[in-house]
Amino acid sequence: MAANTLWLDFMKHLLAAVDLGSNSFRLSIGRVAEQNGTKHIYQIDRLKETVRLAAGLDSAKMLNQESINRAIEVLHIFGDRLRTFHPDRVRAVATNTFRVARNVADFLPEAEAALGFPIEVIAGREEARLIYTGVSHTLPVSQAKRLVVDIGGGSTEVIIGKGDEPVLMSSLYMGCVSFSRKFFPDGKIDAYSLKLAEVAARREIEPITKPYRKMGWDVAYGSSGTAKALYAILTEGKFSKDGITRDGLERLKAKLVRSGRVIPDQLPGIKTERAEVLTGGLAIMSAFFDEMGVEQMQTGDGALRLGVLVDLAGREESHDRRDQTVAAFVRRYHVDARQATRVKRCALTLFESLFPDRGEQDELKQTVRWAATLHEVGVSIAQAGYHKHSAYILNNADMPGFSKVDQESLGLLALAHTGKLSRADALIKTKYQWLAILCLRLAVLLCRRREDVSKLPLTISVKSQTITCKVDKKWLASHPLTDFSLHGEEDEWAKVGYKFELIPV
Q1: What CATH number should be reported for the domain whose range is 2-121?
Q2: Which H or E run includes 26?
Q3: Nearest alpha carbon to residue 117 among 155, 165, 76, 64
Q4: The CATH fold of domain 140-299
Q5: Quick one: pLDDT band at residue 318, thresholds 50, 70, 90?
Q6: What pLDDT, on a 0 to 100 scale, did the predictor assign at position 359?
């Protein structure tokens, strides 16, 4: 019994991050410890498997079965390691190849089943934010401006940040796997192919060059496997004395052109699995140095998966980055904060009445809270059809901390909180989403006068496909517009297969 208690206590301090990259799949397990009032994350276990998922994309951007099988096999291994973890303590994120693969919707359910946890396909800017969070967590506290370049398998993230906060973030559609496949398909290297790859990379970098050079930076870091490989090769191979340098990169390129291919035995510091994608990464890094005017770069230990762990720890401490984003959106879109608070309180009260067990549907409850706060962001575009504008913004805006799935859920609730329910019918995946929409719709109706509602004049219950709404008849008589709107709900819910019973009591 005592041993079991100790084990459970130990597990409470563990968090896990899964990074499904275009080149490698990685698992990091971190222990959260507090020192002098500050929480730190110590990585206690790591797994890495080279999957080369990006190499499985054909010309139509379809993942072939061989690459899918490799991915599923690795996810089974990761899932076995995470078997004892609570879902709230694991976050799995997928990056560029998952973003661009056209058959990812067919592959994702199988991948989630193998891992045993949901997988979030994150946007490029969210990936950039998490990368910077991870890098800054491992560096000394400083207000210096930091340039971070992360060359992944299928995309490259570029960030300038100050302290722990990213300021400029970009995600570029190029990576070491995709460039190695495109420009060095048989592993052969010559001066022409290398130059061609560099020019292509500079073309991708060029649109962001001006704002990044204008902002400037004090120190540059490379956080990817490519950067770490180049650092090791350049320093151990005596190509450079001070990390990744322009001169060192030129010497390495000359060496590879003379050799005609990457020969691991001739390059101290290189790992065998990195050899076949090194040249693509080298071309991209060299293009950054030329286009951005970088002279020297160090490497940062932290990256995406550490950023995910830090984000998870923040959510535990009620420092959820998503809350900060929602607050920023309230300011940016001039949302009526008082009305948002009214609607939020009513919606959450109704939601909690449907799910009285603490913890049940907790993530959906969070979504209801955020959607209630932001349901009027579309008013900044136009009052007519504002719910459609709100849905568009929440689906498509850059929202740090939110995954694509998170944003789709927010957009769905915003779209369906008023007007025709049939617009949302095809987007609904679970019955619980209908219940969330129900709570938000009724909250908006109750708060239409934009006055505080001290006590809800109605209660709701749901059994099978029947919604029972009991309303104080005296209150209903004094609110004829709400009475009219509530009767309108009967028709709307009937169109999506529900019976809405309005019962004055």
Answers
A1: 3.30.420.40
A2: strand 24-35
A3: 76
A4: Nucleotidyltransferase; domain 5 (3.30.420)
A5: low
A6: 61
